[in-house]
Design goal:
With 605 residues, this protein is an alpha+beta fold. The protein is built from 25 helices and 19 strands. Helices cover 40% and strands 14% of the residues.
Length: 605
């Protein structure tokens, strides 16, 4: 076993039932590390060009990273596949316990292909994989599935799908620890298409560390700094920023009609903590414990215990739906987790339907009797179940807002807020345009964590007195850094709140693996990964980089008065400068010197 790795990557073919080892060279480890990086390299290699995301041939790739399970804010794992929602190289990560369990079960990664005739789950134990019957689990929600697996196998950790994945909701999730999600892009639907209900891991394999004393000292130092800086977020979770974004006029409300929400205090993190808090919770071996457990003891939205809601949930099922009922938001958060569907896409898609209903483009006949007006908390929560089970109008919304908009009609399509078919997260592009641009440049469709640029723009105020379009090297460097963090695989919350700087990450990686890589090398790895994701999308005919039409045509009300639409010419200038900063050509194709050993013929073959 080499340091930081278990040296075992497996491929399971559910059609044939065969398991084989994937040859992963040391060069690949040093070039892609693990997680998101190794995921896109394997997708590039093993996904046939033009593959239907729900076809048996589409690989579903589970991947740990060198940091996973070592205690460096890294209980995380990554899943990469071709997205049924966007067609892009979808990659998402999740915390909790499953990443550590996968690695201690003896695997660095697992690639699943094929399709089983009946529901199955995979049991991974000490480097071996067994295909087990899951007929009794099929149809169960996420929590029920995990409980049944633990009743049978004892102390294990599982990555499972709920009804959303089973019913091929285009934004179905893979869930672990009940409330943690491989969320965006629809990996749960890919898993459901393979009739794979769960991946279960257990084991006590040890992770080798090249220089344990140095590694642990660096880890403790960075962890302490993260705790000191992140206490406020540790207390409230990401919802701590809810009031900040509202004050800045960048909190999307009423399906992006406004940039602030008058009743924000009713659904703030402070109100949540005061009235519904039970206890803190965190990922494996994490001292920050930024997840909070809440309960609603009685009433129509009663929930025994649930994790969250976090900022994106408070936005998606709160301000975006014009809903000030905090108990309904807690219930909605709980339901998307049990059903196994992406909370952002679900909330934004429901808000989109409310927008259309308010405009008269939908009525109760279309929505099976539901009055989908802004603020109707009961209808909002009910819609989650209908989407997960593809019931009535929910069947249309389960396709995502872009496909739903196209089917409803041209006027509806104009209202969709998406990039590459993926719904926008909780950041108003007209108010924070640099962050808005980063949503469009994300290789997986609209995404706030591909650059985390709201930190630069809102919290660091980097573009108060300068034009972000003239400084796109800051954007590309941040994207490369986040690609690196996703490949190590590391918690971005701990990384950005503490002292896990690129320099410290370099020292940590050397102490862990013995790899002789400097900080420049690590940024080059992040750049390599970003370029390869872009190359994959280009290979699949997905080249568009743009924001929704509405942001260029509609102004919004916010705390500063009225913010005008984005200037389309300025956005095009930013895109041109972005391509230049990335050393891509005028069409957004990486230049030959950026292909890093991949043949140009790979793009057209």
């Amino acid at each position: 076993m080499s340091y930081g790795y278990m040296d075992k990557f497996l491929k399971v073919d559910l059609t044939s039932g065969e398991t084989s080892e994937l040859p992963i060279s040391k060069e690949w480890k040093m070039h892609y590390l693990g997680g998101r990086g190794m995921g896109i390299r394997l997708l590039w290699e093993y996904a046939p060009k033009g593959v239907d995301p729900l076809a048996p041939e589409n690989p579903l790739i589970f991947m740990a990273g060198p940091y996973t399970g070592t205690g460096v804010f890294s209980a995380f794992y990554n899943v990469t596949t071709r997205s049924p929602l966007t067609g892009t190289a979808a990659s998402a990560h999740s915390g909790g316990t499953f990443g550590t369990a996968l690695k201690r079960a003896g695997l660095d990664g697992l690639m699943v292909v094929g399709q089983s005739e009946k529901p199955v789950y995979l049991l991974i134990d000490s480097g071996k994989v067994k295909i087990c019957d899951a007929s009794s689990l099929w149809g169960k929600d996420v929590q029920q599935t995990e409980l049944m697996i633990k009743e049978k196998h004892g102390k294990v950790s599982s990555a499972v799908i709920g009804p959303g994945g089973e019913n091929l909701v285009k934004f179905g999730c893979i869930m672990n620890d009940t409330f943690r999600a491989i969320g965006r892009g629809g990996a749960g639907a890919v898993m459901g298409s393979k009739k794979l209900k769960a991946v279960v891991a257990r084991g006590k394999e040890k992770i080798g560390i090249a220089d344990r004393d140095r590694f642990m000292a660096l880890s403790r130092k960075g962890g302490k700094a993260s705790l000191d800086v992140g206490k406020f977020f540790g207390m409230y979770g990401t919802g701590a920023a809810f009031g900040v974004f509202n004050q800045k006029g960048s909190l999307p409300s009423y399906h992006f009609r406004k940039g602030y929400y008058d009743e924000w205090e009713k659904i703030s993190a402070e109100a949540l903590k005061k009235n519904y808090f039970v206890r803190d919770q965190g990922c494996f071996n994490c001292p920050l414990k930024c997840a909070n457990i809440h309960t609603v003891k009685s009433g129509p939205f009663a929930v025994e215990e649930t994790e969250g809601p976090e900022y994106e949930t408070m936005m998606a099922f709160g301000s975006l739906c014009g809903n000030s009922n905090l108990e309904a938001i807690i219930k909605a958060s709980h339901m998307v987790n049990l059903m196994g569907i992406d909370l952002i896409s679900a909330g934004v898609t429901i808000a989109f339907a409310m927008d259309l209903f308010e405009m008269g483009l939908l009525n109760e006949k279309d929505t099976d009797g539901l009055t989908l007006t802004f603020g109707n908390a009961e209808a909002m929560v009910e819609m989650i179940t209908r989407i997960a089970y593809r019931q009535g109008f929910g069947d249309l919304l389960a396709e995502g807002s872009l496909i739903a908009g196209k089917k409803i009609g041209p006027a509806a399509e104009e209202r969709v807020m998406h990039c590459l078919g993926q719904e926008l997260p909780g950041y108003e592009p007209r108010r924070i345009p640099a962050t808005g641009f980063s949503l469009s440049s994300s290789n997986r469709g609209a995404c706030h964590v591909r650059a985390c640029f709201y930190v630069n723009e809102i919290f660091n105020d980097e573009f108060k007195d300068r034009d972000f379009a003239e400084h796109m090297e800051i954007m590309t460097e941040k994207e490369d850094l986040m690609a690196l963090v996703d490949s190590l695989v590391m918690c971005k919350f701990g990384q950005r709140n503490g002292q896990f700087t690129p320099y410290v990450c370099t020292e940590l990686l050397e102490a862990l693996t013995g790899f002789e890589l400097d900080t420049t090398d690590l940024f080059h790895i992040g750049e390599r990964i970003y370029n390869l994701e872009r190359l994959y999308n280009v290979r699949e005919g997905i080249e568009e980089i743009t924001l929704p039409k509405r942001v260029f045509t509609e102004s919004i009300e916010d705390t500063m008065g009225t913010t005008p639409p984005l200037d389309a010419n300025h956005y095009e200038k930013a895109k041109k400068n972005y391509f230049t900063a990335r050393l891509w050509d005028e069409n957004g194709h990486p230049k030959p010197e950026k292909l890093d050993g991949l043949s140009l013929m790979d793009l057209v073959s």
